[in-house]
Design goal:
Blueprint: H1 3-17, E1 30-36, E2 41-50, E3 53-62, H2 65-78, H3 83-98, H4 123-140, E4 145-147, H5 155-161
Helix pairs in contact: 1-2, 2-4, 3-4, 4-5
């Protein structure tokens, strides 16, 4: 197993076992629920947004290790960022997991989130990694819910064809 694969597994397992910001945020002024009906992942993202900045963020729910780890790392990544910064990060993350962004060659703000680049090799897991991001995006835009079926053309079919 390569060092990168081993690091990926360690980070995923750590965030799955001890997810960060895994709680109901009582001060939230925006929330959204996200569901992946194909595998059963479901979560709720809570945001406290003030002056266009995500002051606090958390999540609750259940899902596979990739889904939970992605949500955990997403909460760490967006806290303290402006709406515009979060929008750019959301776009970069989504493009990375779809294989549309070469995170090593293209300047980006992904940092530790690059660990999820490997999911693009497993099309069925792309929705697991991106569910929390789409749910956070929905909450930020005052939408109460999203499903992986709302993500436009079926990501799994796009990846399988590509």
């Amino acid at each position: 197993m390569s060092e990168l694969s081993e690091l990926y597994q360690q980070v995923i397992l750590d965030h799955n076992k001890k997810p960060r910001n895994f709680k109901r945020l009582e001060t939230a002024n925006r929330t959204a629920e996200g569901v992946n009906p194909l595998c059963g992942d479901q979560l709720t993202v809570y945001l406290f947004v003030e002056d266009d900045v995500i002051k606090d963020v958390s999540f609750e729910g259940s899902g596979c290790a990739i889904s939970k780890a992605s949500a955990s790392m997403m909460t760490q990544s967006v806290k303290g960022k402006t709406r515009a910064e979060v929008g750019a990060l959301f776009d970069e993350f989504h493009r990375m997991v779809l294989g549309e962004l070469d995170e090593e060659q293209t300047p980006n703000q992904l940092g530790r989130l690059k660990i999820f680049a490997g999911v693009r090799e497993f099309p069925a897991r792309v929705k697991c990694a991106s569910l929390s991001w789409h749910t956070m995006h929905a909450a930020l835009n005052h939408q109460s819910a999203t499903t992986t079926e709302d993500l436009g053309p079926d990501v799994v079919n796009e990846q399988a064809a590509g």
